Amino acid sequence: MTSVIEAPTATTTGHPAGTAPRQSAVLRRISGAVLGVGRRTIAVAAFLALWEFAPRIGLVDRTFLVPFSEAVPALWGLARNGQLWSNTEASLIRSLTGFLLAITVAVPLGLLIGWYKRVAEILDPLLELFRNTAALALLPVFILILGIGETSKISIVVYACVWPILLNTVSAVRSVDPTLIKSAKSLGLSAPRIFQKVILPASVPTIFTGIRMAGAASILVLVAAEMVGAKEVLGYLINASQQNFAIRDMYAGIIAISVIGLVFNQILVLIERRFTRWSVPVGT
Q: pTM value?
C-alpha cells in the first residue's frame, strides 16, 4: 500500500509557513515609511539649520534675524504668560468662521455653476473679474465699508476662501467622466439622481483640493488683515513686536502661525481621506 506523506507545515527554521514573507513585507513597509518621512524632513531640517547658523556666522545681521534656537524659547515664554493662547484663540475664531462661511457659500454655488450651463454663462464673466482681484487689495474697501471690527476681518477671509473652493468645485463638476454620466442615463436615472450618485462622489477629491487651499488662505489673509486696527490677535502680536523691536517675539509669532497652518492642513487631509476612502490612488 502506498504511504501518504504530508507536506511539512513549518519551514526548516521552525517558523510557520508564510510567516517569513509576511515579516519581510512588514519590514519593507516600515523601512519605506521611515525613508519617506526622512525624505520629507530633509528640506525642513536644512531650512532650520540655515536659519540657525546664518545669523551666527554673520551671513545676516543677528539683530534682525535671530537664530531659530532663540525664537523657540520666546514662543515658550509667550505660551507661559498667556499671550500666545489669547491671540491664537481670537485669530482662530475669525479664521474658522470665515472659512466655514466660504464653504457654505462656495460649494453649492460651484455645483450649480458646474452643472447648469445657463447659470455658468451668466456668472462666468463676473467670476473672471473678481477671481483676479487679490483679497488684500480690497482690504481698504472692506475696512471703509464695514469698519475695522470683526465684520471686516471675517468678510475678507470669506472673500479669500471663496475663490479656490468655488473654482475647484466648478472644475470638479465639469471634469466628471462623460462615460459615467452616459452610463447612469442608460440605467434610467433621473437628473437629480445622476447628480447625487455620480457627480457629487466624483467631484469630492477636487473640491477638497480647493478647501485645503482655502484653509491656508484663511490664515494668511487674516494675519495680514489683523495688522490693521486689531488687538490681541496673532497679526497684531507680530506687528506690535516688530514696532517695539521685540524681534524674538515677532519670530515666535511667525512660528506659531506656521504650526497652526500645518496642523490645520493635516486635519483637512484626514477629513478628505475619510470622505474619499472609495477612491483608488493613481498607480495602484
A: 0.76
Distance of CA 241 to the CA centre of its chain: 27
Instruction: Give the span between the Cα atoms of 67 and 16, in whole angstroms.
Output: 55
CA atoms of 273 and 248, how far apart (whole Å)? 38
Phi-psi region of 188 (alpha: psi -120 to 50; beta: other; left: phi over 0): left
* Amino acid (one-letter) located at 234: L
Residue appearing with cell numbers 487679490: 134
**pLDDT score for 282:** 42
Q: Of 84, 86, 50, nearest to 255 (Cα)?
A: 84
The count of other CB atoms within 10 Å of the CB of residue 106 is 25
156-203 residue pLDDT tens: 899 999 999 999 999 888 888 888 878 888 887 777 788 878 888 888
Phi, psi dihedral angles at 16 (to 5 degrees) = -60, 150
Dist CA 280 CA 274 (whole Å): 13
Residue 16: strand pairing partners: 10
